[in-house]
Specification:
heterodimer; A: alpha/beta; Rossmann fold; 2 domains; 6-stranded mixed sheet; two-stranded antiparallel sheet; 8 helices; 36% helix; globular; B: alpha/beta; Elongation Factor Tu (Ef-tu), domain 3; 4 domains; 6-stranded antiparallel β-barrel; 26% helix; 27% strand
């Protein structure tokens, strides 16, 4: 079996475990390449259906074409979409860069707190998230089934053992589990899979006429594009095979302090 | 080292060894020396070290958590990627501190090969031995030993050889044959990507060359089929049994047996979405199947070919390592998870307790006998209902399991080969190994013990509609599932308890009232009572329903047209009724009032016995989501 098929089969297995074990399950969809691959894998796992809602945490600072793309796919694929938004914070105006908030504070309220609000509101006990180990070092330490306590905190020093595809599926009430079916994929794998499956992907990843493209999608104040001539999937794959620049290099919020991202994740960030 | 074409083969390697023997340093150096570090990473870490006023450590590349950098230890396992000309590697950096053994196991359980580091200065330590033992238990057979920090020992060949000699003896005692021993100095890169000028006496392979010599684990394509059912989906008009083929292969037309329930059916289709259609699937594939005959199958069942089924028993021997904060004790209830099966289990006996760092037997007899955290136990496990399994040395995936204590996965084990009886050999063996409950306290305690609450499954329908057949089959099915079921029908009621009654309207009502009372008592005693009586009058059945607690009474209309029943006429009663030899015969000369709100209706003229049974069982399981009446 080729390695992309191995990755795919493992992810499907994990997603089916999650669907069986959690009565109130949702999947985060950021419109980006990873969670769109995740969505594709869900359709594989459930034979063309997506039997749980997709949650999009909208900061209102997303690149506008992302929202258009989102709404089109929702319609075409007959998806159930739940949008999470920290409306109080947006109203207060304490955001980055216009209001007085650092990048990390802004992520904390508009993404992390918004996520928490939407999880609380719908009582989701299982949340499927498309993070990967190779994205950044704290994600490298994640589990496929990763518990969060009632304050949404990640106790990274005491994670459950995970062996032989037996996951943590027994948990106390007031806790929820993050399920990470793409944990073992790399950025390159994602693109190779998009190519193999001929699956649609938001065009923001392709280079524009100015010779720039996004490698990782987020909010426009904190997401930079990279110089690139890659205008299709095959060219992106060729580019990634020759780069040593990390994927999140365009994400400014990671760089505010040495452990900025670790702190965000401990508190419940994706 | 950085090539434009990344090879498609991938191998997972775990790095293990005692705390502070240099695992993370080694990984950092390996990445640097193979040109695999992301741009700017080295400079960033050097800057951070400078700002914090601490010396730069290669280990900081891997130790991502602030607490790890502060203490200079790896707390949790981490994975990173790099590649050689030959293949891609996933490097799993596992912690060496005993406190984080569960993280080491998490990392190692995913690996196909291992590098075990030993500090040349400190020599073989407790976790050098324990990790070696656990790698073997986890099934990792490809191991190379790196004797690190040779710089601290002046690159002494003698020191290297003495460590090799000592550790080889240990590995041999646990049945491990290492690939080779390599002297390295991770901090300086000796013998990692390139040959060390400091150790000209070493003629063997470098670490990188050794990695490329390891082999990718083959999928068990040629073993007997094992297809554990993960779930059953009815998203559209298909009823799909979803799962991953764990061993062997499966194809359309295969006659399958589903262990441990012993139901059989045939593969109708192999289901995939947005993939080339194919009439077969092989080990490693997550697929779905549909069946020609709709039988009752639930998550946990293991589909196999009838010619090579797994064992189906309630006890097996195991070797298990324990990670739980609370010790593993005999008689305590735990949850067993094996493939997709889950069952309550007990440790029946602990034969041997082993300290995995010395192989010494722990002497702990008497009532306090237990397996403590980080120890290994050889023991016998007993489950409350039959489990389908294989011996680990025959089929790996169905030969290993985890134990859950409360909410936590607390131990992992393998099924040790033994003289287990096969299902086909003798059904008496199955009976002998079934768990039988004892004790008589309260209804709830009884339900906890039984794994289900008491209830009444009331089959009603015309004579010849199939009530008795379904009742007997349902009883057998529930019994196999480890549940306590009993059938009441004309055979055991009319001849005893109700032999004073005839078939007039009044006598029929009295008959049903008595059966209702008896079934209520049985349900109260925790049994699943199945009744098979025509019970033609709606009011009689309502009366019985009202005796029960809500949800306890399940009315099943066994429905077949009169014409069909009359054609079947198993006891020749219709013929007699038509000839006026039997008065007041339901359907002919007495009315049948069909239920208006039966929980389940089975059309026995349209469904097979198995399909009818599965419809009833599925109803019970659906109810299960709301209230755990039926587990």
């Amino acid at each position: 079996m080729d390695y992309l098929s191995k990755l795919e089969n493992q992810s499907i297995y994990i997603m089916r475990e999650a669907f069986n074990k959690f009565e109130n399950l949702a999947m985060l969809w950021s419109i980006g390449k990873d969670s769109t691959v995740l969505l594709w894998l869900a359709r594989k796992a459930f034979f063309g259906h997506v039997p749980f809602p997709l949650v999009h945490v909208d900061t209102t600072f997303k690149i506008p074409s992302m929202i258009e793309y989102r709404d089109r796919i929702v319609k075409e694929w007959n998806l159930q979409l739940v949008v999470g938004m920290n409306e109080a914070q947006l109203k207060s105006g304490v955001t980055f860069p216009a209001g007085r908030a650092t990048r990390v504070e802004c992520c904390g309220t508009l993404k992390k707190d918004a996520l928490r609000q939407v999880l609380d509101k719908h009582h989701y006990t299982g949340v499927i998230v498309g993070v990967r180990r190779d994205e950044e070092p704290t994600r490298a330490k994640e589990r496929y089934f990763s518990p969060r306590d009632k304050n949404m905190e990640w106790n990274v020093e005491d994670q459950p053992p995970e062996l032989w595809d037996q996951f943590k599926t027994d948990f106390d009430k007031d806790t929820h589990i993050r399920i990470h079916p793409l944990l073992h994929w790399t950025e390159l794998n994602i693109w190779e899979y998009i190519q193999r499956e001929k699956m649609p992907i938001i065009p923001l990843y392709y280079a524009n006429e100015k010779g720039e493209r996004y490698r990782s999608l987020g909010c426009y104040p904190c997401t930079g594009s990279i110089k690139s001539k890659a205008s299709n999937v095959a060219e992106i794959i060729a580019e990634l095979r020759n780069t040593r620049v990390p994927e999140r290099s365009g994400r400014a919020q990671d760089k505010e302090s040495e452990d900025a991202f670790e702190k965000l994740r401990r508190d419940g960030y994706m | 080292m950085h090539t434009t074409s990344i090879p498609s083969e991938q191998l997972k390697i775990v790095i293990v060894g005692h705390v502070d023997h240099g695992k993370s340093t080694f990984v950092g150096r390996l990445f640097n020396d193979t040109g695999s570090l992301p741009e700017g990473k080295l400079e960033q870490l050097q800057k951070v070290a400078e700002r914090r006023g601490v010396p730069f450590e290669w280990a900081n590349l891997m130790d991502a958590l602030q607490s790890e950098r502060d203490q200079n230890i790896t707390i949790d396992t981490s994975q990173i990627w790099f590649h050689t000309q030959k293949r891609q590697y996933v490097i799993i950096d596992a912690p060496g501190h005993k406190e984080f053994l569960k993280n080491m196991i998490t990392g190692a359980a995913n690996a196909e090969a291992a590098l075990l580091l030993i500090d040349a200065n400190e020599g073989v330590q407790e976790n050098s031995r324990r990790h070696g033992y656990l790698l073997n238990l986890l099934g990792i057979r490809q191991i190379a030993v790196l004797v690190n920090k040779m710089d601290l020992e002046n690159y002494s060949e003698e020191r290297f050889q003495s460590i090799e000699k000592e550790y080889r003896i240990w590995l041999k005692s646990i049945g491990v044959e290492p690939k080779l021993f390599i002297p390295i100095a991770a901090k300086h890169g000796d013998n990692i990507a390139s040959r060390s000028a400091n150790m000209p006496w070493y003629k063997g392979a470098t670490v990188l060359e050794t990695l490329d010599e390891f082999k990718v684990t083959d999928l068990p394509l040629n073993q007997p089929l094992r297809f554990p059912i993960q779930d059953i989906y009815r998203f559209d008009d298909r009823r799909i049994l979803a799962g991953r083929v764990e061993a062997g292969s499966i194809k359309v037309g295969d006659r399958l047996v589903f262990a441990p329930t012993n139901k059989s059916s045939t593969v109708k289709t192999i289901e995939r979405w947005s993939a080339p259609s194919s009439e077969s699937a092989w080990a490693g594939e997550s697929i779905g199947i549909t069946l020609t005959e709709q039988i009752f199958v639930e998550r946990g069942a293991v589909a196999a070919l009838e010619t090579a089924p797994p064992y189906e028993l309630t006890r097996f021997k195991a070797r298990l390592f324990w990670l739980g904060k609370q010790p593993l004790r005999m008689g305590r209830p735990y949850k067993l998870k094996l493939a997709t099966q889950e069952a309550e289990c007990f440790v029946e006996s602990i034969e041997t307790i082993i300290d995995a760092s010395t192989l010494n037997t722990v002497d702990r007899p008497g009532p306090d006998r237990h397996v403590a955290r980080h120890e290994v136990g050889e023991l016998t496990i007993r489950s409350k209902r039959p489990i389908a399994f294989d011996a680990h040395n025959e089929i790996v995936v169905t030969g290993r399991f985890v134990i859950v204590d409360g909410f936590e996965v607390s131990g992992g084990g393998i099924v040790v080969a033994d003289n287990y009886p096969r299902r086909a050999a003798d059904s008496a063996d199955l009976g002998k190994n079934l768990y039988s409950s004892e004790g008589k306290i309260s209804a709830q305690q009884r339900a906890d013990r039984n794994g289900h609450q008491g209830r009444v499954i009331w089959l009603t329908g015309l004579s010849g509609s199939g009530k008795s057949t379904l009742a007997r089959e349902l009883e057998r099915e529930l019994f196999i599932q480890g549940k306590h079921a009993y059938v009441l029908d004309g055979d055991n009621i009319r001849q005893g308890l109700c032999k004073d009654l005839g078939f007039s309207h009044a006598d029929r009502s009295e008959n049903i009232r008595r059966v209702g009372e008896v079934s209520r008592l049985m349900a109260d005693a925790g049994l699943i009572c199945i009744t098979a009586f025509v019970s033609p009058y709606r009011s009689d059945r309502e009366l019985v329903r009202n005796l029960m607690k809500p949800g306890e009474f399940l009315e099943v209309h066994v429905d077949a047209p009169l014409k069909v029943c009359e054609l079947r006429d198993p006891k020749g009663l219709y013929a007699k009724a038509r000839a006026n030899e039997i008065p007041d015969f339901t359907g002919i000369s007495a009315p049948y009032e069909p239920p208006l709100h039966a929980e389940v209706v089975v059309r026995t003229d349209q469904l097979s016995v198995q399909e009818s049974i599965s419809k009833i069982l599925e109803y019970l399981h659906m109810q299960d989501d709301d209230a755990p009446i039926f587990i």
